[in-house]
Write a structure and sequence with these properties.
The protein is α/β, with parallel strands linked by helices. The protein is built from nine helices and 16 strands. Strands 1, 2, 3, 4, 5, 6, 7 and 16 form an eight-stranded mixed sheet that branches.
């Protein structure tokens, strides 16, 4: 009855205890497949700057045949660093599509991090050369760490990592986290690091091109995370015109992703590779790019999994939410 309605709340610690990489991979893969089959809808993205210096966005969507509906309110507040807080902030809400009533509210920071890492992992599995051994990572923050974590787990052939930081200094904690899994070291020359790598991962705030066009060698694959707003970019001008381009969503990528800088360039959605609608047919000398802007469906499928696990295990806080 409406008077007995409950709203389940999952905080940061509860979410992190329930987020298992294999489960997230499965949920993210399902989101790509649903998107390819057009069973899942992705609604227009809201992404706006604030006078506070932050960026606020809403990603939403639904899967009508599954009764799945919801949104993620998220953004980037760089001044949080001065407060010893995380600049990326996200909250996910699942909603009953039959009544419009909220069902579950979830701290979305860890969800965003993990589902983006899983999406990047799927991109590597389907687009990078299987014999890749060397990877270059731009960034050493939360997203750079999760992207590299999935890369090393899914591609055991990767043995050498070179990373670059915004301040040009080593990040000992980043190195220590991966030291037992690979040969990892800091690089000062981005162009050289890119030219000597089979895979390049860009996970920065997207303030501008990170390396020169000439440094990208035939056969390289690039996973691009940082461009998620109009005006952002990580790749040099002219590169997209030379590559085979893959995206999570064509419309979204052309609006806010790296693809905005080559909006007329043909691109293929990764979900279509998973469902067989398209084939990668990668040649050894192809340069491939996976432009990741993040699908609302990824947040929703992962959030549903968390909500179900929380109810099974008794985690979370239930609040009376009568109507």
């Amino acid at each position: 009855m409406p008077s007995d309605a409950q709203l389940l709340l999952l905080d940061k610690n509860e979410v992190e205890s329930l987020l298992l990489p294999d489960d997230v991979m499965q949920a993210v893969r399902e989101a790509f497949v649903l998107h390819s089959q057009r069973e899942g809808r992705v609604f227009p993205v809201v992404r706006e700057p604030l006078v506070t210096g932050g960026i606020f966005g809403i990603k939403s969507g639904d899967v009508q045949v599954q009764g799945l509906l919801g949104f993620k309110a998220a953004g980037f507040w760089p001044t949080n660093r001065a407060l010893n807080g995380e600049p990326h902030q996200a909250t996910i809400m699942l909603i009953d599509p039959a009544t419009g009533r909220p069902l579950c509210m979830i701290d979305g920071n860890a969800v965003t991090t993990m589902r983006t890492g899983a999406a990047g992992g799927l991109g590597l599995l389907h687009l990078a050369r299987a014999d890749s051994t060397r990877v270059c990572v731009f960034g050493s923050g939360v997203q750079a760490r999760v992207q590299l974590t999935f890369a090393l787990q899914l591609m055991p052939s990767l043995v050498r990592v070179r990373y670059l930081t915004a301040n040009g200094h080593r990040d000992p904690a980043f190195e220590a986290h991966f030291a037992e899994r690979c040969d990892i070291s800091h690089a000062n020359d981005g162009d050289r690091a890119v030219s000597e790598s089979d895979i390049v991962i860009t996970a920065t705030p997207g303030a501008g091109a990170l390396f020169d066009l000439h440094s990208v060698q035939p056969g390289t694959h690039l996973n691009c995370v940082g461009a998620d707003t109009k005006g952002k970019r990580e790749l040099p001008e002219g590169l997209l015109g030379r590559v085979r381009l893959f995206v999570d969503d064509q419309v979204q990528a052309r609006q806010i992703g790296e693809t905005q800088w080559a909006a007329d360039h043909p691109c293929t959605e990764l979900g279509d590779l998973l469902t067989g609608k398209a084939q990668a047919n990668r040649r050894d000398d192809d340069i491939t790019v996976f432009d990741m802007t993040g699908l609302a469906l990824q947040d929703l499928t992962v959030a549903r999994m968390l909500c179900e696990r929380a109810r099974e295990t008794g985690l979370g806080t239930s609040l009376a939410w009568p109507w």
